[in-house]
Every structure is written in C-alpha cells, then in structure tokens.
Amino acid sequence: DAGITQSPRYKITETGRQVTLMCHQTWSHSYMFWYRQDLGHGLRLIYYSAAADITDKGEVPDGYVVSRSKTENFPLTLESATRSQTSVYFCASGDTGELFFGEGSRLTVL
Amino acid sequence: AQRVTQPEKLLSVFKGAPVELKCNYSYSGSPELFWYVQYSRQRLQLLLRHISRESIKGFTADLNKGETSFHLKKPFAQEEDSAMYYCALEGSYNQGGKLIFGQGTELSVKP
Fold first, then answer.
1. CB A31 to CB B97 under 8 A?
2. What tens digit of pLDDT does each residue of A44-90 get?
3. Averaged over A7-26, what is the pLDDT?
4. A95 pLDDT band (50/70/90 cuts)?
5. A99 touches chain B (CB under 8 A)
6. Which candidate, B4, B44, B47, places its Cα nearest to that of A89?
7. Residues 46..65 of B with a Cβ closer than 8 Å to A: which?
8. How many of the other CB atoms lie within 10 Å of CB of B51?
C-alpha cells in the first residue's frame, strides 16, 4: 500500500541505550522530515532530508542522528537516549508544503 | 526569525457556536501558511493552505499580512470538529515542505 509507515509504534527504553525509529514512504517524495510532538511545544523539527544522502538539522537536532541512503527510508537514531527524549515522534514526507505524516512512534525513556 | 504562535492551548465551544483559532507568524518574506488537523487516533493531515483559498469542512482562513495572522474560522462548530489544530509556516525558499509549526490548539466542541 502506498503511504508512510513508522516503526515501532511504541517503544520503552532505558537511559543511555541506542534507539532507532524507522520511517518508510512509497511516494518517492524527495523531502522527508522528523518531528517530535510535546505538550506546550507543538511539533518541532528534528532533522530533514532533501534527497538521498542529503540531510540537515532542524530546530532540535541534539542527541539525534539521521541517515538517508535510499529515497524511501529515513531512520532516526537516538545514540544515547535521555529522559528528555521521551516524546511522540512523527515522520513526514512531501515536496510542496503538503506533508504526509506517519502514525507516530511513542517513545518512553526510563 | 521564523516563528508561529498559537496563543490558545485549549478552546472550548458549544455546538453551533462560531469558532476562531488564532495564529500569528513572524517571517520576513512572503509566507506560505497552512492549517493541519489531528483528529483523535488519526494522523496529522492538511486541512487547508492559504494559497488555495478553499473552504474545507466549513473552515476558512485568511492571510492578513498587516497583522501577520492566519486565523482559522468556522461559523458553526460541530462536535466532529473536536481535534488538535496546528498552524504552520513554510519557511525559506527551496526547502520543499519544511514547515515550522505552532504549539497547537486543542478544540473541544461540546454538545
């Protein structure tokens, strides 16, 4: 099915562990994005990518790493998770201002 | 700096009442503005964008460059309008769909 999918949908981890959130889209959009959603802050951009092998920082990139070896995939890695990274993470893709969002990945860091 | 501000975290109205969700932006160029909506247990999705000048689900939004606002309005709220609403700004040129979102306003429409 065409669309954008995220995995895992729910994840509980411990402080200091590495976590990778996966994102896959089937539209061949050039642009892909990772946002985090927190009460009082709305959606904040973590990283984005304009094409394969091209990534750039957003508003809150510290503690996160991304890669984009293929157009359709845009994984987000928390190298050493902290409690402040407990959040809902949304992946999105789109080239014209209309973004298509995944269902979100709810991450809890204990 | 590019910024989007939604001053109300929660807006509660009764069914049939008018609704206005406020959005103010800060941007030095010519902005592209959007409203996104997230219904309970659904994905965030585009509601409308200012360049299309459409009315979607009875909602309209007018860009006021003088007041740097893009308020979302609906004359008669329905219970199914209850959701989280985000105003968003498309920033720098040639960055595709890179959007800056506001903090969001939760709309609750009571019967």
1. yes
2. 999 999 999 999 999 899 999 999 999 999 999 999 999 999 999 99
3. 97
4. confident
5. yes
6. B44
7. 46, 49
8. 12
What does the alpha-carbon distance between residue A69 and residue A59 come to, in Å, rounded to a whole number?
Answer: 22
Largest CA distance in chain A: 38
- Residue A40: list chain B partners with CB under 8 A: 9, 103
A33-47 mean pLDDT: 92
Beta-strand relationship, A100-101 and A54-57: unpaired
pLDDT at position B51 is 78
Over residues B10-37, mean pLDDT:
93
- Are the beta carbons of A14 and A81 closer than 8 angstroms? yes
Q: Does A35 touch chain B (CB under 8 A)?
A: yes
Q: Does the beta-carbon distance from B101 to A35 stay under 8 Å?
A: yes
A33 contact residues in B (CB cutoff 8 A): 97-99
Strand A54-57, strand A42-51: pairing: antiparallel
